[in-house]
Specification:
Layout: H1 6-13, E1 20-21, H2 23-32, E2 41-48, E3 60-64, E4 75-78, H3 83-89, E5 94-96, H4 98-105, E6 113-116, H5 121-125, H6 128-131, H7 149-158, E7 160-164, E8 170-177, H8 182-198, E9 209-216, E10 222-224
Length: 229
């Protein structure tokens, strides 16, 4: 069996593996964990008591984190007419139609967010096999299929994130960077937690959150006492 690195051993000593922590304490522990040689993201996994095979129980939504994610995102916009100039002046990294589709097909540029106006969706729909698995297929529920291109770009730059459960009923998301203040991480976490809480399927009864854990990009997961939230 491969011996654990000194870093892993150091980090695991910082927490009791099976213990659940209040979110404030968990954030403090993350700050004390031996860091990587880059500014790590802070991630959260919400394991939900849902049946992902039932469409009515799937959870998806979006929320603007009050302090953003700390990540500079690359935004592409599919649109036509006057919205082209609006998208360009609003800070889109690339605006186009067929030319943008070709860039995506050839994977010349990896975009973090795709926004599309309604009339472009016939073209964008053909890119589903590429955009879908990456979680960036435009969707009206996320505000990424819209005529208000300016607002959609503005929200994304402010820290808007989209979330949805995977096939195991878990929502994975980033809610900041390790160099954020404890208070900002706490407020970002609560905004995301409350948004997912409000997205609870109406048909679901009983427990909603089975388990919540947070971690840095390279660090161990820390279980959250979600009953204290």
């Amino acid at each position: 069996m491969k011996e654990k690195s000194k870093k892993i051993q150091f980090n695991q000593k910082k927490k009791k593996i099976k213990k659940n922590y209040k979110i404030n304490k968990a954030i403090e522990i993350l700050k004390k964990i031996k860091p990587a040689n880059f500014i790590e993201s802070i991630d959260v996994a919400f394991n939900l008591n849902i049946n992902p095979k039932k469409s009515e129980q799937n959870v998806r939504g979006s929320v603007i984190l009050p302090h953003g994610t700390g990540k500079k995102i690359k935004i592409a916009v599919f649109t036509t007419g006057k919205n082209i100039k609006i998208a360009q002046s609003s800070g889109a990294d690339f605006v186009g139609m067929e030319d943008l589709a070709n860039i995506i097909k050839k994977q010349k540029i990896k975009f973090d967010l795709i926004i599309a106006s309604p009339e472009s969706m016939e073209l964008v729909g053909k890119l589903g096999p590429i955009l879908g698995p990456r979680g960036i297929m435009p969707n009206p529920k996320f505000g990424t299929v819209t005529n208000d291109i300016k607002k959609s770009i503005k929200d994304a730059r402010k820290g808007k994130i989209n979330y949805k459960n995977d096939k195991n009923g878990t929502i994975h998301s980033n809610f900041g960077k390790i160099n954020f203040s404890n208070e900002h991480l706490y407020e970002n976490f609560l905004a995301l937690y409350h948004s997912i809480t409000q997205s609870k399927p109406a048909q679901l009864k009983g427990i909603y959150f089975k388990k919540i854990s947070i971690s840095t990009t390279m660090g161990p997961g820390i279980n959250i006492d979600h009953l204290s939230l």
